[in-house]
Amino acid sequence: MKMVSCPMISKRRCLSRAFVTMVTATAFVFVVANITPASCLSGSLRSRIQSLRTTLHPPAGDEFPGVERDALLKRLVSLGRSFSQKPPSLDSPATFHRRHPSEIVPGCTSAVVVSASLGSSNVLSVTGSSDAFLSSGLLAAVCLLLEGLPARDVVEMDDTESIAEYLGLRSVLTVGRMDGVENIVRTVQRQTRALLCTDFDPAATSQEKFSCKLPRVAMLLSGGVDSAVAMHLLLRTNTHEVHAYYLKIWLEDELSHLNACPWEDDMAVCTRLCAEAGVPLRVLSLQEEYRDTVLRYTVEESGKGRTPNPDVACNRRVKFGVFLDHLDALPAEESYDRVASGHYAEVVRDPDGTCRLRQAKDAVKDQTYFLSTLSQRQLQRVIFPLGTYPKAEVRALAQKFGLANAQRPDSQGLCFLGKVRFEDFLQNYLGTNPGNIVDAGTGNVVGRHRGMWFHTVGQRKGLGTVLDPKVGCDGPWYVVAKDPQHNVVFVSNKYNEGDFKRARSGKYTSTILCNYVLISISIFFLSLHVEDFDVENIHWISGRPDPRLFTTISSETPSSACHVTMKIRHGPNMALGTLDLLSPAGDTGRVRLDAEDGGLAPGQFVAFYLPDAEGIGECLGAGVIGERHWEAFIETMRMQRGEEKDDQLGIVG
């Protein structure tokens, strides 16, 4: 059967096709025309971008969708061919004042080589080559934009990642080539800065000519999103020479039987991130140092029934401790000026050289609690690029930068454990040591624990498996205290009822009451909902108690206390209270909280803050919660039973 075309249908198809073409072309031109170069770019550069954009995107004709894209690619290739045939005039040694040696641009899809040159008036010229015509076209575009500009204008550009966007190239370039344009510009900026800070001497050797170096930064890279974005923010400032370090602290020899080594995935991510960014990556094993410091501290404190914080110890003793010592031991030509990390915090540097640790803008992610024991020496060497960024924006930047780990979830738990449960870790090093679980309200034994280090104050989850089934239905039960001397864990199911609620107090008493239950009730709430506690080993970041806290600071014990803002654990919640220093050095004190807290435990850190007008606090230091409230609880129970201090604690059977 012969098919007969309908003129009306054909006409409609043509009109429809023409309409789609018109809309597509109009939208394409609209998008290109409305991407305006940022005001932070010089007027001359903005004018050049607009001119080159017009060259690459002439007024749309009657092409079908896709034709304009192909035409743009052809224009870029043609630009690359022309650039290869007619390199800039400053390629001649007789016409430039100083020239940087050619370098391969990192992170480009093709091999791109570039060299910046300065004329006698510090006017910039760029030469280069590529093994692909499209990359040559992109290189030519950069050269056309920067050719003849004042060198300092080029160095001070801070919107380099958007140049390809301004030129309307997103529709035809892969993410890799888009990044390649930025990398070309950044390489030229770095070379230009080196030329500007070099006192030119025609007789000098190549090494002497380019001896002016940017400050070198050792970037701690973990494989997570935060440290990856922090590294890219540093790179985009063009003010540092960045080298990445991955610290290997996973103890695979001791813990490999518990789980697969998590650092293998982290290392793969770090390797890819650095390859794409053109950043050298070094792997440094600090396993032995970590074992001798953080691991030993964690195991010893847990064995005493206390609550350690390995993250606080790791920052002070490893990441900004032995790692800094390692960097300082390097030869002078390999030394580093700063260490950077992805922590959410800010370092404020005063004119006199004093460094102050300030909370991050994101209160939920703020990590000054974990950094509260750093010293002045350590703070003077660190950079925290994420201090002013909320977490949501960091995630958005990871997408914008096209990072390989942009979708990677945040890590949970301790950095050296990976997926290993903390309970399994403790059992591996401390084993088990069964003991009684005692009801703090009655003195009755209500269960058996496998080791008091498996339980923390305020714990509810997991108690059901170690309590007598007969009392399980009387819950919920909470851990309220531990007696390390007699291996006893105290619990209660009267968290917020009647006399327990009324019995909350900040004062401890050893008065023997006739009613045993009232004693137990009172002491229970002193342990679970205490308002005052002792603080030991207080570390002040400035080296001494901050005078801004106290009206009088004398060489003797301060006679007056101060009101202070605190963090008792990591998170956005702040506590208010009074701090009274008990020693001339200010390293011990007593805190009285304005409101009760339900989870204080010996060994836990408490960080002190001084809020500013914006409500963002400066972290002044931290101390360790002492055992006074536990000792008062246990001693009162002994006295009620009429026992000597060192006798075995009597428990009602």
From TrEMBL:
UniProt enzyme class: transferase
Signal peptide start and end residues: none
Residue ranges constituting the tRNA-specific 2-thiouridylase MnmA-like C-terminal domain according to the UniProt record: 533-625
GO BP, one annotated term: tRNA processing
Domain tRNA-specific 2-thiouridylase MnmA-like central, first and last residues per copy: 423-492
Enzyme Commission designation: 2.8.1.14
Membrane-traversing stretches: none
Segments forming domain Fe-S metabolism associated: 74-191
UniProt catalytic activity: 5-taurinomethyluridine(34) in tRNA + S-sulfanyl-L-cysteinyl-[protein] + AH2 + ATP = 5-taurinomethyl-2-thiouridine(34) in tRNA + L-cysteinyl-[protein] + A + AMP + diphosphate + H(+)
Pfam families: SufE (PF02657), tRNA_Me_trans (PF03054), tRNA_Me_trans_C (PF20258), tRNA_Me_trans_M (PF20259)
Superkingdom of origin organism: Eukaryota
GO molecular function: ATP binding; tRNA binding; tRNA-5-taurinomethyluridine 2-sulfurtransferase
InterPro entries xref list: Fe-S_metab-assoc_dom, MnmA-like, MnmA-like_C, MnmA-like_central, MnmA-like_central_sf, Rossmann-like_a/b/a_fold, tRNA_2-thiouridylase_MnmA
Keywords: ATP-binding, Disulfide bond, Nucleotide-binding, RNA-binding, Transferase, tRNA processing, tRNA-binding
PANTHER family assigned to the protein according to its UniProt record, in alphabetical order: PTHR43052, TRNA-5-TAURINOMETHYLURIDINE 2-SULFURTRANSFERASE
Purpose: Catalyzes the 2-thiolation of uridine at the wobble position (U34) of mitochondrial tRNA(Lys), tRNA(Glu) and tRNA(Gln). Required for the formation of 5-taurinomethyl-2-thiouridine (tm5s2U) of mitochondrial tRNA(Lys), tRNA(Glu), and tRNA(Gln) at the wobble position. ATP is required to activate the C2 atom of the wobble base.
Family: Belongs to the MnmA/TRMU family.
UniProt protein name: tRNA-5-taurinomethyluridine 2-sulfurtransferase
